[in-house]
Design a protein that fits this description.
Blueprint lengths: L2 E4 L8 E4 L5 H4 L5 H8 L4 H18 L11 E5 L2 E6 L4 E3 L2 E3 L28 H12 L7 H12 L11 E5 L6 H13 L4 E3 L5 H8 L6 E3 L7 H19 L2 E5 L5 E5 L4 E5 L7 H4 L2 E5 L8 H15 L2 H13 L1 H19 L2 H16 L8 H10 L13 H11 L1 E6 L2 E6 H10 L8 H8 L4 E4 L2 E5 L3 H7 L10 H5 L5 E10 L2 E9 L9 H8 L1
Parallel strand pairs: 7-12, 7-13, 8-9, 9-12
Antiparallel strand pairs: 1-2, 3-4, 4-5, 5-6, 10-11, 14-15, 16-17, 17-19, 18-19
């Protein structure tokens, strides 16, 4: 599209010039002035035209430039080619170093900010050293001890996340005094600092996406809170980015000059906050939640001091480099184990998306213990060894189930018998069907309360209007279903599309979805169970 792209050896960064920009004042970005003078016989207008002609003809012969061939820092793998690690100022294949323009293949590796403090002559970490890391993670106060396995797996694969087909993400949560900062900064960041990038809580999605550019590196996001409405909106956009990063999807954004700017996100994310803000099923399947609990027993302070000493002794900068080199020198075995563990997890869990997530973390954990390829049977045995329900989305509600839950659990202030009462929509539905209810009021009162929302109980089930202003503005406002809730409701078990238009209330007539009463099962002993809890 009128641009000519060059990778000069001086800067080793991509330079774009229009046809009209091929003047010596711009060409000195590509080579020194004396080169142009010596090669084209001077610096006059004729020599300038001759140089421009030669350059553009070379570009025409080379072919069209595609920016998806540009690879930033991090690990890159393509079928039939050896894995490449882009260190910023040079690239590594195996143990061999290359200048960016020397790397074989069609991919382009422009120079980026160099990685500091990495001595590639460091001996790779041994299994015994890696087991000390695992022991450190096991000493953390987890709500579920299996979180130590998941986080160890993430640490194991994070530096080479760009080479993976699927990038798992983890989210640390815990209240004050639970050790969240210790885990995130003193453990995780110590080990991925040389290869990753850290952002603070107020960072926006463009604030993460733009600095990453073409890099495929691990990302830490501290204080990822969503307490205010503005923060919720910001985190929603960040989670959209995280979701795309799992499969390495391409983001296309418009620019001020009218051209689309594309970003391919291949980062593994580690987020940290007091509470997570995962709302969608798609995010549940991509992010493993790791929950910390605060210890209050007598040995808590002593054990925490011992943990800090172990962190200082074990997780040194030398170990961080050695851990990376253990992974990098055995990258083929790791990728093979990832494929094996994902297949094994799919066989056991019967959920391919959960298998992508958990299988990759398992492979990272196993890599800390052995650099040899494992068998499918060994991987199956490992998956079966643990209960993964807390760390996968197998038991998580789907988006359609979340929608129904949102509707049924929304509370309304209702007036019945001259008194104001607070009732959920579910309670009002029961009252409209069964008559008097402690919270919903009389049958007619309850029916009148929910009718303007587009809800009408009938003998066959509950009719929910496909279009009702109050349902969108009051019940589903700010959710993904605010403007369209019919389709996901129709995907619920037993749901049926209404054959005609239904009447709900004055001004509310709409096509509807009929949900069977089986979706509204009211526990017969709910009251007794609640009394026992109280």
């Amino acid at each position: 599209e009128g641009q000519y792209y060059y990778l000069p050896r001086g800067t080793e960064q991509i330079t774009a010039l229009t046809a009209a920009s091929h003047a010596f004042k711009n060409l000195i970005q590509l080579a020194p002035l004396d080169y142009w003078e010596a090669t084209f016989g001077g610096l006059d207008r004729k020599a300038e035209m001759t140089a421009a002609n030669a350059l553009m003809n070379f570009a025409h012969k080379r072919g069209t430039f595609y920016d998806d061939l540009v690879r930033g820092r991090g690990a890159w793998s393509s079928e039939g080619s050896p894995a490449v690690y882009h260190m910023g100022q040079f690239c590594v294949i195996g143990t061999q170093q290359y200048r960016p323009f020397e790397v074989p293949g069609d991919a382009i590796y422009p120079a980026r900010r160099p990685r500091r403090g990495i001595d590639l002559t460091t001996p790779p970490a041994t299994a015994a050293e890696c087991k000390r890391l695992v022991a450190v993670l096991e000493r953390v106060s987890w709500e579920n001890p299996l979180s130590a396995v998941a986080l160890a797996g993430w640490i194991g694969i994070a530096p080479v996340c760009g080479a993976l087909e699927w990038r798992p993400h983890v989210w640390l949560t815990g209240g004050a005094g639970s050790g969240k900062t210790t885990v995130l900064l003193d453990i995780v960041w110590r080990l991925v600092r040389a290869f990753g990038q850290k952002f603070e809580g107020n960072t926006t999605e463009p604030g993460i996406r733009q600095p990453l550019g073409p890099d495929a590196i691990p990302v830490l996001l501290d204080e990822a809170e969503a307490e205010s409405e503005a923060a919720q909106g910001r985190m929603t956009k960040i989670l959209d980015l995280v979701r795309l990063a799992s499969s390495g999807s391409t983001v296309s954004k418009g620019s001020q000059n009218g051209d689309a700017v594309q970003y391919t996100i291949r980062s593994a994310f580690c987020l940290s906050s007091i509470e997570h803000s995962i709302k969608q099923h798609a995010d549940e399947t991509r992010i493993t939640k790791l929950v910390l609990r605060k210890r209050t027993d007598e040995r808590a302070n002593e054990d925490f001091k011992a943990l800090r000493r172990e962190i200082r002794d074990c997780l040194t900068p030398r170990f961080a480099t050695a851990l990376f080199l253990r992974t990098w020198h055995n990258i083929d075995a790791l990728l093979a184990n990832v494929a094996t563990c994902v297949d094994a997890a799919a066989d056991v869990l019967r959920d391919r998306r959960a298998a992508d997530q958990i299988g990759t973390l398992i492979a990272g954990y196993i890599h800390l213990h052995t650099t040899k390829p494992i068998t499918f049977e060994q991987a199956v045995e490992f998956v079966k060894r643990y209960d993964w329900s807390d760390h996968t989305a197998i038991a998580a509600k789907t988006d359609k189930e979340r929608l129904l839950e949102r509707i049924l659990t929304t509370r309304l202030m209702v007036t019945s018998g001259g008194a104001n009462k607070n009732a959920t929509i579910a309670e009002l539905i029961y009252a409209a069907r069964d008559g008097n209810d402690d919270r919903g009021g009389t049958q007619d009162d309850a029916a009148r309360q929910i009718a303007p929302l587009g809800i009408r109980p009938v003998k066959a089930g509950v009719m929910i209007a496909n279009s009702a202003v109050r349902m969108g503005r009051e019940i589903l406002r700010g959710t993904q279903w605010e403007n369209s809730w019919a389709r996901p409701l129709q995907e619920l078990d037993g749901a049926q599309k209404g054959e005609d238009t239904g009447y709900f209330a004055p001004g509310v007539r709409s096509r509807y979805t009929l949900l069977p009463w089986s979706l509204f099962e009211k526990p017969q002993d709910a009251g007794h169970a609640g009394e026992e809890l109280l």
